[in-house]
């Protein structure tokens, strides 16, 4: 087996040092009744065979480059510069562990520090952590944090959240009998108001009125963003106490839903209630600047059942991909990318308006719009998929949610409209 | 070696004068000259009037560099990292094994990387097939045939597993009275933290006096402590092999008592690498467990994630698993729909998990096959025992006299401490000698622990070099008068010991002008 370096002779020499005749002797502590059956699995295979086998699975899928593609709803199809994937595949980043030994992990640590800096700047917040699993779990962690900060239990949803985010929040909160999740305005029992912008249907929101509600009730304002590129065009949610969401759009492929990148930022006064890892700047014994994981007394490996979260692993390599992509884009590139996305969506909206049986519902949007169609949305999606067009997501029986990005070409929009004209 | 007069270069900044040989200092991106152009060329936006309802955002404060500058920035930083591809990485409980590049290549096929989680099932049959096959492999290897692969990491797998148990009790009308989770004091911190996130009270079972393993007596005492029938206990979380590297051979009897009391046995599968392909956890009474795909099945650790933590459970607990599972109707695969399987605890992760990790793990399993996986655990255990027996004369090996270890060897600094040298100092000397240290100060059952997990992907030669250096350290410390030298280690690294107190006292967590 190509991954196992021990030679037969080495194994024998090692057994001699240990004082056993066979490896089976090393398993002496395991009761015999718990061993000794077979597994109904194949034997090992060479690289070529595995590549063929897995390649056949990959070939069965319709990939985004195979045709016009308009699906978004929290995961977006974007271009990733080739440098990003090269850097994250370097051994030194790919095969390193969490930087517990900072003297030999400064590369990972500096990248995390830069990642935190990018997130803090983009969100207009004071501090950001070193990442969480994804946008949905980041939002659930934000709600848990608001409960710790305010010592209140009720969660208020301010507008139309992503359905998966809502489901994850409900599951995390189902562990407690005293948590109510409501829609509407907060009261003096509310820990937080959660607002998503753009919301699930693509509408862009203003935060002032939500801020006012929170100031009056004492609840924290949590802003959720699941298309981080929108922050290159929309104002930073500085009114928020916590900003969290999904950063997959920068540096990461859609990859059928993961691994993606949950980001999490907040005001400095809440720092010690934050979940997840934090990287901080310090000095070494010679006074040179360096970086370490810090404030770990919040975390499970120190605090056990009193920790702020059970989070251990984060999405380190995804945060690196984000950081590389952001550094390539820079200020101007990031803003241009945001504009290109918005302009692609404008083109899409204008083209769809001309299709009979389609009504664009958004007053405002970034790169995603909802349309009402004269027909069943799920049936339409299936129909168009058979023609090689991934048309969007059914956000209701006759509502279709469509995204356009820098990947969307005029010919894609034309093909979509032509197909819709035929079906509707 | 810092120069007396600092020359400031526009691109590289003032730290460049510390560069020497292959050693490059690297500034933060924000300390570089902000370039006129982006490192990504794209069409200029047309300038269409905005339909966002807002003015365009002003200056964000982002840096800007060209592509070669960005590339060099990260390549230089990478040279400051130690990795498995550099050398021996015996981090106990973390299973730092070789990461085959085939797994990376396949996860990047457009048919896997460029598909969207909400595409119609008919367009992603291959992806669903991968997930379904992974479910089957994990079910077969654990003997726990119901598998949910959506949890994002080990800790989220724990959450999913404990919530599965909690949901079962809830639907049986028992969640109010069952408020306690038992766990040994040697458990990973994530275990009690997870139980607390699920609203449970954590009751520790002491193991220090019983050779680092659970004793039936201590277990019984914990189980019946506040209810004579143990009916206030929801379940127990045990790592097996445990965090001292020992197999909990009495755990089947404990599982029987726990089951009789109406509780469930959760196994933390972090140490599955010792028994994969040899023993099925179902056969020693486990009801539900998580698997760290980034440990046993070699998806890369990536400097701290992404991980992936599927859970496997018995048929009895299957109705309560998180959603969505992949199901097969005839020849077609699909994800569970909304409203289907209403007994579920719900959804814990956006979409259907870390699919890219699923591809890598299945690739790894297919490469090894059942014969290769069996060899994985045998070599992992052989390597750890070889280290234990080679070093037990030089270091305090608290449980070595009781028998063999599994895939990791536990030592402490008891002997070296008498000479003023601690586990931390030994770790830093290992850094100086070109190794990543073992896990230090974990498990917490004894002071100054060192947990050494060589994994199966090391040759005897590589392990011998580690043993030789560990012996040299022990002998040097034994000879005495090295306290100061050890406290000053490492010195050959780009940075020496870092001031963690300063970092925590005055947190600087982002760049600021």
Describe the structure.
The complex is a heterodimer of chains A (424) and B (513). Chain A has 424 residues and is of the alpha/beta class. Chain A folds into 2 domains: 109 residues, Aspartate Aminotransferase, domain 1, CATH 3.90.1150.10; 240 residues, 3-Layer(aba) Sandwich (Aspartate Aminotransferase, domain 2). Chain A is 37% helix and 14% strand. Chain A is built from 12 helices and 13 strands. The radius of gyration of chain B is 26 Å and the shape is globular. In chain B, α4 runs parallel beside α9. In chain B, 57% of the residues are buried. Chain B folds into 3 domains: 57 residues, no CATH class; 263 residues, 3-Layer(aba) Sandwich (Aspartate Aminotransferase, domain 2), CATH 3.40.640.10; 131 residues, Aspartate Aminotransferase, domain 1 (Alpha-Beta Complex), CATH 3.90.1150. Chain B is 33% helix and 10% strand.
List keywords for this structure.
heterodimer, A: 424 residues, alpha/beta, 4-stranded antiparallel sheet, 12 helices, 14% strand, globular, B: Aspartate Aminotransferase, domain 2, 3 domains, 7-stranded mixed sheet, 3-stranded antiparallel sheet, 33% helix
Q: What's the total helix number of chain B?
A: 14
Q: Measured on Cα atoms, how large is the radius of gyration of chain B?
A: 26 Å
Please bin the fraction of helical residues of chain B.
25-40%
Summarize the main sheet of chain B.
Answer: 7 strands, mixed
Oligomer state equals heterodimer
Q: Using DSSP, what is the number of strands of chain B?
A: 12
Could you spell the SSE succession of chain A in H and E letters? HHHHHEHEHEEHEEEEEHHEEHEEH
Strand content of chain A: 5-15%
| Beta-strand content of chain B | 5-15%
Question: Mean of the pLDDT scores of chain B?
Answer: 95
| Strand line-up in the sheet with most strands of chain B | 1-7-6-5-4-2-3
The H/E string of chain B reads HHHHEHEHEHEHEEEEEHEHHEEHHH
Q: Between the first and last Cα atoms of chain A, what is the distance in angstroms? A: 57 Å
How many helices of chain A in DSSP terms?
A: 12
**Biggest pleated-sheet summary of chain A:** 7 strands, mixed
CATH topology of the largest domain in chain B: Aspartate Aminotransferase, domain 2
Mean pLDDT level of chain A: 96
Quickly count the domains of chain B.
Answer: 3
